[in-house]
Design goal:
Elements lengths: L5 H4 L12 H11 L2 E4 L4 H15 L6 E5 L6 H12 L11 E4 L2 H8 L1
Parallel strand pairs: 1-2, 2-3
Helix pairs in contact: 2-3
Amino acid sequence: IYTLSLHDALPILDKVYHTENLTDRKEMLNTLCDVAIALPGGVGTLDEVFTLAAANSIGYHQQHIIIYNMEGFWDELVALLNKLESQGMIRGDYRKRIAVVNSLDELEKCLS
């Protein structure tokens, strides 16, 4: 796994946005991004994914949310989403809001 620092990524980024806090960051995600891709992460990543998914479910936006399930990292989350859906705790088919991909090839297909 290769970690790209912000300094190294600058030549390939169109824009870099700095935010004061997590609330500002999530607002920017809600208003500026077309696609959000969740890589393996922690509580902050989950917060961002579900903030976008909840906003999508009530019609606030139509952004695509992709969970990149690298090496099965998000398997338990996907199982939980399936359970929540089967028990009627998620409005509609969550897969219409959140795509789960398991490889870079799947990610590329999902983005095209």
